[in-house]
Design a protein that fits this description.
Layout lengths: L2 H9 L10 H14 L17 H13 L4 H6 L16
């Protein structure tokens, strides 16, 4: 989709002149690039979310690996539902 087509879609104007100012062109190009930026691959969390002794043991060993620093363990999962920014990602 061309920048002019995107601008038409955004503004919902049936007939939009194809000549754009420099600022409009920059805005349309920026919106176009944001919309076409690929999202990172979603990763499964390293923690196990089950109420079993096995899950508790696995999570204990994971925390032991990170010296019981939960913040560090979470920060190592940048693209999983456990990450700090996960609420803003399109899961």
């Amino acid at each position: 989709m061309s920048p002019a087509q995107i601008l038409k879609k955004i503004t919902r104007v049936p007939s939009l002149p194809l000549s754009l100012t420099e600022a409009e062109s920059w805005l349309v190009q920026t919106i176009y690039s944001v919309l076409h930026t690929p999202l990172p691959q979603i990763q499964a969390p390293i923690f196990t979310f089950e109420m079993t002794p096995e899950a508790a043991e696995q999570n204990f060993h994971l925390l032991d690996h990170y010296k019981f620093d939960l913040g560090l363990a979470i920060s190592k999962q940048a693209y999983s539902p456990v990450s700090y920014s996960s609420k803003s990602l399109p899961w």
